[in-house]
Amino acid sequence: MVARSGVTVVRNAVMVARSGVTVVRRGAGASGTAYAEPSIADYAERTAAQQEWWKAQNGRQGGDPAKLARALITIASEKQPPRRFIAGADAIATAEQKVADLKAQIESYRELSTSLAFDERQTEGG
Questions:
Q1: What is the mean pLDDT of the chain?
Q2: Are 84 and 13 in contact (CB under 8 A)?
Q3: Which residues are paired to 24 by β-bridges?
Q4: Spatial separation of the C-alpha atoms in residues 91 and 83, rounded to whole Å
Q5: Any idea what DSSP says for residue 124?
């Protein structure tokens, strides 16, 4: 099963693997597909700017959807597919920036994060 990126998908991937189902988290870059029109009126005002951006990108995406499909089929056919597949040069650049940001956050709060263990464990009754 190839699924769009999502925390739940990644969290449950190990659990469903016991049932013989393999999950690959796909983080894809822009592929040359048409974008859907917004369908929930309640969100229209908040999403208008994003929709305009997507419309402007339509037909200008660098990724070939046929190549993406072939890549996903290749991965789905592997005995041990990756847990995460980042598809497209633009997606790789975004992922690399995210990794760099995460590393910076880790370093900024390393001392605080690693100071959270109990100072000493008390035994029962004592």
A1: 78
A2: no
A3: 2
A4: 16
A5: T
